[in-house]
Design a protein that fits this description.
The chain contains six helices and 16 strands. The chain is an alpha+beta fold. A hairpin with a 2-residue loop joins strand 8 and strand 9.
Length: 386
Amino acid sequence: MADLQDVKHREILELLPWYVNKTLHPEESQQVERHLRSCSECQRQLEELGSLQKAVAVETLQFSSEALLRGTLRKIRASREQLVQERNRWWKPWRGTLRPRWALGLAVFAFAFLGLGAFVGFQFGVNRVIGGAPAAGQKAAHTTEQYFAFPRQIELQGTFTMQIGSRQLEQESFTLEILEDGRRLFTSNIQANELAATQRLQLASDLRPISYSLQGPLVYRGIRAEASFSDAQATLSVCCTVGASGQEIARRIVQLEDFPVLYDFSVMSHFALLHRVITEQLTRGLSSRELRFSALTPQALRVEPLWVEVIQPATLTSQGKTLHVTKYTLAIGEKANPLRIELYAPENEELLAIYIPTQPRLASSSAIFAYRSDLYPQGLDMPQAP
């Protein structure tokens, strides 16, 4: 009698995964339910299988595409029904001989889990492809979900190509993204012939700099330039000059009179960020005359006043096509002899070009020009000097 009870117990154990999936025939379900009333071991196994089923299905209702989800679940159900038919056809003659117990039940759960995983992967692919590439003025607040555990909220992204006169000098790819805590991260990779550098700038939510580093052979008199900010001060440093006592770090603490920004002619994307600061300040109701900045050059351990001299309509050309833009003329340094820099951007859109005409304070005998080569791979024409 005890042997018959053991055989019955093992048979019920084998039926439990199918009972959880609700694929048993009514008679088998009734047998399982009667057995569960008096068998504590089967009750525990039933709870474990129920928990596993919930873990597999817990997130399905949160997916954005209901049509894709329904299609995926239909495939899972069809495959499950096929497995049930195979079980009924193949398994009964072998009962009492083979005892895989949980193997078939776990296989069904694994199949469902893999099906949902494939659905999630397909969703990422759809989110990445549908809609195509954004237009030049629609790249702000673009979100990409490809290959990241958490989506990156990209606010600004592009590539500058810089030239001096007619000679191309460097390319710089840059990204401004919003972090989870509201801070912003501005990074870029700079390539000039065989030299390269990488910059990383952390910013508060209002675009005030928190920390900065530029590393590579493009750093003036060193391999790394850095800056950190606190209250109305900034600490600038360049590492490392080789002296009699070995490597030496040059460091300087400077006072910040106005809103701090960075500028460096080897990092042209600083001007894209500066343009973003200017447009945000203007959006908040400030006039161009009220815009005042403390412009820092960590490589030179220097801080200078920067202001907007004039904002006016202008044009750029690309392969004979005229682009109507806004020109922001900036002045840096002493008012008696400032360095002037021109920024060109369509209204309420991203910076397209930076033009630094030849002037007494500029060491180069040729004008410096940088343009968004990701938006205009065919090139933009350098503005004509007045």
